[in-house]
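User: structure tokens for this one?
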Amino acid sequence: MLTISNRSLPDDFEELSITGTEEEIAALSEELAPFLSSLGHEVIEPKTDEEISIPHKVVGLTLIQGHSMIRAWREYLSFSQEAAAEKLDMPLFDFVELERPGTNPGVPTLMKIAEAFGIEWEQLQI
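Assistant:
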């Protein structure tokens, strides 16, 4: 999947995701990158499954206890909800909503969380 996003826009910006074969996405990404860059957008190519590492404890918290990936990582990293919300510069209520199972934040939000947690944004996806 290829995701096109603009980090300078608010979190509720609707990103564009394109699916296809690796070859199709690579070709499209190469063609679109200069044009999108001139508009202030960025082409984000996620890492492959082989490039992503998720600790067993995070997987267990997600699969066995039913936590969202955001909550599982927060607990794994020993952050309180308050500390995580503060790192993200957001109200606690908003962060708690992001942690709820079934919440599907966009790539810009995942990138912001990952940066605050010191992980890759792809590690927050399942």
